[in-house]
Amino acid sequence: MMRTGFQRVARLVHHKALPRNPHLLPKLHQASAFGSSTDSLVARFCPEKTDLKDYALPNASWCPDMLSLYQEFLEKTKSGRWIKLPSFKSNREHIQGLKLPSGLVTASDKQDWRIFTRCILLEGQGYEYVIFFHPSEKKSVCLFQPGPYLEGAPGFAHGGSLAAMMDETFSKTAYLAGEGLFTLSLNIRFKNLIPVGSLAVLDIQVEKIEDQKLHMSCIAQSRDKQTVYAKCSGVFLQMQLEEDPPQ
Amino acid sequence: MMRTGFQRVARLVHHKALPRNPHLLPKLHQASAFGSSTDSLVARFCPEKTDLKDYALPNASWCPDMLSLYQEFLEKTKSGRWIKLPSFKSNREHIQGLKLPSGLVTASDKQDWRIFTRCILLEGQGYEYVIFFHPSEKKSVCLFQPGPYLEGAPGFAHGGSLAAMMDETFSKTAYLAGEGLFTLSLNIRFKNLIPVGSLAVLDIQVEKIEDQKLHMSCIAQSRDKQTVYAKCSGVFLQMQLEEDPPQ
C-alpha cells in the first residue's frame, strides 16, 4: 500500500496532474503555499537544544584545509548572515513534527535508518561534510572531504559520491530556501577527480523559483578555486509539509 | 605531486588538448587504441579463479523479486550471451596488473579502500546489487536493492544513492564495452522514489561510441516496468590502460 500510494502521489506531481487528483496529494494551502518564512524553516531545522548527535562537527580526520575553512565560516555565523546546519543521522530527525504528504505511509521506525550521506559513521572513512546556509541570499557552501570508502578510481572519490553530496546539499538548501522537497533532475559535468582525503568546496545557489520548482546550481572546486571538480544544475519540486497535530 | 599530475592529465583530456601535451598523457597506441576486444576485457575482469570475495552474490537480505530475477539472469549466462560480473571490494582489485594513465600516482595501499558502492559491508543495510553484461549487444542489467543506510525521504532511497548506482553500472559497462574510464557527464531525471528494501532494475545501453566518448542511457524501473524510478544519460571518456610490466 505504501509503495503504490507514494508512487501515485509522486507520479501525479511529476506529471503536473495536481488539480485532477487532489485526494492523493498533500493538502496544499494555496493561499499560503510555500509561504513559510525562511526564518521559521531554519528555526525548525536548527534546534537550539537537542539530544541528537550533530555529525557536522570537526573530528581528527579533517584535513587542515577543511578545518580552517570551517573555522572561517563559523566566524561568519556570528554576524547571523550565515548559519551552520546541523546534520543528524536520519532525515526523520530533521523533519520531526512534520507530516509527509498525505497518501504516504513511511516505513517502520524499527530499523537503523541513516541518511545516505551519513551511512558510514567511522570518522574519516566515508563522508565528512558540513553545510553553511545563507538565508537572505539563498545560497550554501558545503565543505566535503571524501574518505577511502568513497573510492572510484584508485585514490580518488567515486563520481557517484560527489553526485550524492551535491544532491544532498541541494536538498537541504532547497528545503530551507523554499520548501523544495523532491529532486526532479540533476545534470552533472565532471571536470577533475577529487583525491581521497582532500577538501572539495561546493558552492550552491538558488537561481530561480518558478512553477513550484527551485532551479539550483553548484560548482565543486578546490579551496583556491584553481581546480574545478564538477559543475551541476538541479531542479527540486516544492511541497509544503504540514505540522503534525499534537499527540 | 599526485594531485597536480592527475588533475593536469584529466583536465587536458577533458579539454581535448591531447595532441598538444603528449608528455602528460597516458601512452596511447593509436593503431590499437580502444582496440582491446570485449572478450579480452571480460576475461581480465571476470577471473575464473580468484581468492577475492565476490559481493554480487545472493544473501539473506535479498527480497524475493531480487532473488528470482537473479536466478533468471544466471540461467541466461549458461548460453554465454550474458555474463555475471563479479564485484570486489575495491576497483584496485578489478584492474590488477594494469597501470593507470602515466603521470598519475595512486595513493598508498595501506588504507581500507572500498569502491563507493561497496562501502557498507553489512548485508542488506547498504547497497545490494549485481550486474549482468551482454557483450555483443553492449548492454547491462543491474539489480539494485537499497538498504536502510541509503535513505533520503523516510522509507525511500536517497536520489544520490541511485545516481551513484547508475554511475557505477555505466562505469563497468563502459569499461567492458569500449574501455570507457572516466565519467564526463550524468543527466538524471527522477520520476518516482524507490522504497527501501525493494528491487529496482536498471537497464543500461551503450548508444554510440564517437570521438573517444561512450554515450550511454539508463532506465531504472520496477521489475514489472509499471513504475519508472529514473532515467539517465551518461558520457564516458575512453582511455586505454596498459599492462603493467611483470615485476
From TrEMBL, chains A, B:
Q: Which UniProt keywords apply?
A: Fatty acid metabolism, Hydrolase, Lipid metabolism, Mitochondrion
Q: Which CDD domains match?
A: PaaI_thioesterase
The keyword Mitochondrion appears for this protein: yes
User: Does the record's keyword annotation contain Hydrolase?
Assistant: yes
What Pfam families does the annotation carry? Answer: 4HBT
Coarse class of the primary localization is mitochondrion
User: Which locations, inside or outside the cell, does it occupy?
Assistant: Mitochondrion
- Lineage top rank: taxon: Eukaryota
- The UniProt record lists the Thioesterase domain at 155-225
Enzyme Commission code = 3.1.2.2
**Name under which the protein is recorded:** palmitoyl-CoA hydrolase
Species this chain originates from:
Phodopus roborovskii (Roborovski's desert hamster)
* Gene behind this protein: Them5
